[in-house]
Amino acid sequence: MNNWLKKAAPVALASTLLAGCSFGSGDDKASDVETTVKVMYYDESGFYQNYGMLYSALNPNVNFEIVSTQSLYNNSGPSEDGEEFDYDKALQKLLDEEKPDILMLDQNQYEKLAQDGKLLDIEAYMAKDKFDTEGLVPGMADYMKELGGGQLYGFPSSFSSQVLYYNKALFDKYNIAYPTDQMSWHEVIQLARQFPIEGEPEERVYGLKVGYSGDLNEMANMLASADNLKYVDTASKTMTINSDGWKNVLQTSLDALNSKALYFESMDQGMNGGSGSYEDYLMRNPFLSGRLAMTVDSTYLMQQIEEAGNYIKEEGAIISDWDMVTMPVSAQYPDQSSSTWYSDIFAIAKDSPSADAAWDFISYISSDDYSRVKSKVTNMGGFPIRTAYIKDEEGRNFAAFYKLKPTRAQQDYREYEKLNPQFNMMFYNHMNEEFKAVQDGTKTIDEALELLQVKGEELLSQEPMTEEEVNKEMEKRMAEEQAKMQEAAGEAVSETVAE
Question: Which pLDDT value is given to residue 30?
């Protein structure tokens, strides 16, 4: 997205929301009382563009003071006293010193602060105001309660997800049953393999598009994420990659890659030379041009289909008969997806002196009114949390976007910061090398996993590298990569000359 669009999008959101509001419908409970509410958010501008501008217009006597969290994300490496930056400690220090009333949190922060008794249970407020929970995304309130250890402390303001789109006409043509909600990855791959694989790459039909490169590492990690598999336990600092779960994921991924039924994003570059007209660009997408049975994507694909339909007027050139089902899931966790995210979770600090005003803000951005106007610019900030505004005029299965909950046991990416820097820098490259050997047929899955377990344990047992050592290692690796690229380029030139 261009820089100007990034800046303009939130303003457009606020303007659209304001245009869609009835200013006589605001809550006047505190209309005669001047109130200041402290909000923990990334920055002041972002808060007002996304939330504060609208709410302040409806509630002019409520003032917001923004407690910025930028320092939590800008810090890295050791502090002046030599200690490594600890995100959890820094967050707690910010809360203790600034004492915000409203906290904007991600899922892991929400769960931890709830466990630590730092948040206010909002169910009494909900009961008093007869807060409508019927129209919320199904399971969302229960999920937030589960994260809160049985109590409800807040709501996300939006959510995002991916789904499995499918070409109904192709399924009908080859007399193959449509995919259904909550199919496993194994089932979807088997479905994809029912489509023919004959023909030239730019003309043939493909069963499934997933991922970018078509390498085993990418595919296996995607399936492992669905199964909640981790290659390292960051809490105990132990390797977990040599397991039956990883063996199954690798075998399923390898079989899928060898089936020739899959299409990958990188293949777009090899067709028609990666150049030509805008129409050529659109038609190179095999789902748009009707040559792909299934593909994983977000709402962005719907925008592409609409744009292509408006741009290319040739009848039948662009897909029209399509629908969607939920993302493929793990058989162990059929109601969860690592491709579903609850965004901007707002909660109230346990000791907030302005809890009433804080609840009024949260209840509004969780309301039907807010969702109604937010849905007009859904693609700028995810879906609203009210299902009445998640649908289309064609009656497609839009429930697929919200049927699955976020993966419950996702490992917080910040937990990896607790591992020594060389592990984070080197282990993924080791996975790439070993999984490539499996894909090339020079190693078995068992051999690769056993070696990765050992290499990981060796890295974890080492003393942390200094910043200078890390920089030297990175320079060395960059030089090696550059040498490989130059060697590959030289081989390509030699082959061209030989021809």
Answer: 46
Q: Which of helix, strand or coil describes residue 39?
A: strand
Residue 207: predicted pLDDT: 97
pLDDT for residue 263: 95
Q: What is the CATH number of domain 163-336?
A: 3.40.190.10
Q: Looking at the chain, how many residues does it have?
A: 499
Q: What is the pLDDT of residue 354?
A: 96
Distance CA 92, CA 120 (A): 16
pLDDT for 23 equals 37
Q: What is the 3-state secondary structure (H, E, C) of the chain?
A: CCHHHHHHHHHHHHHHHHHCCCHHHCCCCCCCCCEEEEEEECCHHHHHHHHHHHHHHHCCCEEEEEEECHHHHHCCCECCCCCECCHHHHHHHHHHHHCCCEEEECHHHHHHHHHCCCECCCHHHHHHHCCCCCCECCCHHHHHHHHCCCCCCEEEEEEEECEEEEEHHHHHHCCCCCCCCCCEHHHHHHHHCCCCCCCCCCCCCEEEECCCCCCHHHHHHHHHHHCCCCCEECCCCEECCCCHHHHHHHHHHHHHHHCCCEECHHHHHHCHHHCCCHHHHHHCCCCCCCCEEEEEECCHHHHHHHHHHHHCCCCCCCCCCEEEEECCECCCCCCEECCEEEEEEEEEECCCCCHHHHHHHHHHHCCHHHHHHHHHHHHHHCECCEHHHCCCCCCCCHHHHCCCEECCCCCCHHHHHHCCHHHHHHHHHHHHHHHHHHHHCCCCHHHHHHHHHHHHHHHHHCCCCCHHHHHHHHHHHHHHHHHHHHHHHHHHHHHHHHC
Tell me which architecture the domain covering 3-159+339-406 has in CATH: 3-Layer(aba) Sandwich (3.40)
How many whole angstroms separate alpha carbon 273 and alpha carbon 42?
Answer: 43
Which DSSP category does 52 fall into? I
Q: What angle do CA 42, 61, 154 make, to 5 degrees?
A: 45
Q: Show the low-confidence residues of the chain (pLDDT under 50).
A: 1-30, 79, 273-274
Q: What is the distance between the alpha carbons of residues 327 and 341, in angstroms, rounded to a whole number?
A: 13
Asked whether the beta carbons of 206 and 294 are under 8 A apart, the reply is no
**pLDDT tens figures, 107-163:** 989 999 999 999 999 999 999 999 999 999 999 999 999 999 999 999 999 999 999
Is the CB of residue 158 less than 8 Å from the CB of residue 366? no
**What pLDDT digit, counting tens, does each position of 440-471 carry?**
999 999 999 999 999 999 999 999 888 788 78
Residues of the chain with CATH 3.40.190.10: 3-159+339-406, 163-336
Q: What is the pTM of this model?
A: 0.85
